[in-house]
Write a structure and sequence with these properties.
By secondary structure, the chain is mainly alpha-helical. The protein has 21 helices and no strands. It has helices spanning 4-14, 18-40, 44-54, 58-63, 73-107, 109-114, 122-148, 153-180, 184-207, 217-222, 233-255, 279-307, 309-318, 333-365, 369-373, 379-412, 417-427, 430-446, 451-472, 476-480, 497-520. α16 (379-412) packs antiparallel against α17.
Length: 525
């Protein structure tokens, strides 16, 4: 434990900006949903009508949670946002623990720290304590908001503890991954896949076999059934899993070499490929693993959504009130559903684009950009190589979402042409995806230290507007700030070229401004 307290204070100072944003984001999501739901479904009759409407729709249940939550207004709030809030908390824990363990070890900061009087386990313990403090802060914020907006205190306490419990599980899982992989991107990739798998298992369990939900920490949190049955024992499952994973991480830490992971990187070939002699070739080599992973993961998610498309019409025939939930009403229910799920795939493609663009900043702060820029490689070529992969990769991820959804939907309706159709539909959302990436590019040029915050805030803003604009009753001016709002909801609406061109011009302007700023500022600061 030597030095753990000092390291914890140091970590708190390093995350003094990002941590409040994570906690505030989860709290704001709960606050808006709580106030809006109580306004919309304040009477038992309105809540019963909602339960009858949503309870028969498998797609909505797969996206939100088990129908048992709809027994109370508080449970309806948990039904709407718990899965998304849990993903926010899980990502917060992943980045906190990954940054202060494997990230510091990879950049050499951990070696400097270990040259002082610091125990071998202290960096890991400090990172996990930071995650615990962050999860407790989220829990306090959720509980205060729940009670403050008029929800029962017992249910508010349970949902707060359940969210914190999900965070603890993924913090401990990240600690294990930090011992397994040699690079931070491997840690983030593995834990990111685990978060996606947890969401998918929960969705499959809620919509089909309930046993699958018990394989997901997010499913454990929802099955506490706050404001209704108020089960506390799933919280013990989360705490026990977190303790077990933490023990595994400590044992692995004691047995591995410093700077190495349990899975060693393979030695490279004796001669580099000719492609590595160009900035673009090097950028592709750095990004290709994440590109392949995102394409496969989002493609599978799209296939899962597409497999449910054929059943939507039948569900609406049984429950006509559901048409009010879909953007296009009952006139073309399948296309409305496909538009909603393709938009979710577009948000994931934008997430990949932001992460890939920010890799340029990581190369810069790690000191690997300066040796390249000291050669004949120009600043524009170096930054352009990373942004080019970010833009092209996000397009591939988006196409994978459309192809997977179209292929699965086409198989259910015996129409193979749906794969081509939905792949084309996905391209309609590409300007909005690139607009989010362009915000990160602009920040890389002018405000490099704030690039990560700007990129992820832009993505989060678009996600809130796209997914919760109606639920939160957001004002029109807030919705207009999202590029997704200006594009047609394909395939529900007809596609015209004007909005695509306008958003495309904005993308070009932002990226051009980003290049101009990068040519003028110091590198590495």
């Amino acid at each position: 434990m030597t030095g753990t307290g000092i390291l914890l204070s140091f970590n708190l100072r390093r995350d003094r900006v990002a941590l409040p944003l994570w906690i505030g984001g989860a709290g704001l999501l709960f606050l808006i949903q709580s106030t809006q739901s109580q306004n919309l479904y304040g009477t038992p009759e309105e809540l019963a009508a909602l339960r009858a409407t949503l309870g028969g729709n498998t797609a909505v249940i797969a996206m939100s949670g088990p129908v048992e939550l709809l027994e109370s207004i508080g449970g309806e709030i948990v039904f709407e946002i718990f899965a998304f809030a849990a993903i926010i908390v899980a990502l917060m824990n992943m980045f906190l623990v990954g940054r202060h363990t494997r990230g510091d070890e990879e950049t050499g900061r951990a070696e400097l720290i270990r040259s002082a009087r610091v125990g071998r386990r202290s960096p890991l313990q400090a990172a996990l304590l930071l995650a615990v403090l962050a999860d407790l802060s989220v829990a306090v914020a959720i509980f205060a908001i729940g009670v403050g907006t008029g929800l029962p205190a017992a249910g508010s306490l349970l949902v707060a503890v359940a969210l914190a419990g999900v965070g603890l599980v993924f913090a401990a899982l990240t600690a294990v991954a930090a011992q397994v992989f040699e690079h931070a991107r491997g840690v983030y990739g593995a834990v990111g896949v685990a978060i996606g798998a947890a969401y998918m298992l929960r969705a499959a369990g809620d919509a089909g076999n309930p046993a699958l939900s018990w394989a997901s920490p997010i499913g454990w949190g929802q099955r506490t059934f706050p404001y209704g049955q108020d089960r506390w024992w799933p919280v013990l499952l989360m705490i026990g899993t977190a303790v077990l994973l933490t023990g595994i991480a400590i044992v692995a830490l004691d047995r591995r070499d410093f700077g190495a992971g349990l899975v060693r990187s393979r030695p490279g070939p004796p001669r580099a490929s000719w492609a590595l002699g160009t900035p673009t070739g090097l950028a592709w080599r750095l990004h290709r693993g994440s590109v392949i992973g995102w394409v496969l993961g989002v493609g599978v998610l799209g296939a899962a959504y597409g497999s449910l498309g054929d059943s939507i019409e039948q569900y609406l025939a049984d429950n006509p009130e559901v048409s009010e939930f879909l953007p296009g009403g009952a006139s073309d229910v399948v296309d409305a559903y496909l538009a909603l799920t393709i938009a979710m795939g577009a948000l994931l493609a934008a997430a990949f684009g932001v992460a890939a663009a920010l890799r340029a900043r990581a190369e810069e702060t790690a000191g690997r950009a300066e040796p390249l820029l000291a050669t004949a490689v120009s600043r524009g070529a170096w930054l352009g190589s990373h942004l080019g992969v970010a833009l092209a990769g996000s397009a591939l991820v988006l196409l994978a979402a459309g192809f997977g959804e179209g292929l699965a939907y086409g198989l259910t309706v015996n129409d193979p042409g749906q794969a081509v159709r939905m792949t084309g539909v996905a391209l309609v959302y590409l300007p909005a995806v690139w607009a989010v990436v362009a915000v990160a590019a602009l920040s890389l040029g002018w405000w490099a230290r704030a690039a990560a915050v700007a990129g992820w805030v832009a993505l989060g803003y678009c996600a809130v507007v796209e997914l919760f604009a109606d639920s939160f009753n957001l004002p029109e001016w807030m919705q207009q700030a999202s590029p997704f709002v200006h594009l047609p909801d394909a395939p529900l609406e007809s596609v015209t070229a004007t909005p695509l061109i306008v958003v495309g011009v904005v993308v070009v302007a932002l990226i051009t401004a980003g290049f101009a700023g990068f040519r003028r500022r110091d590198v590495g600061y």
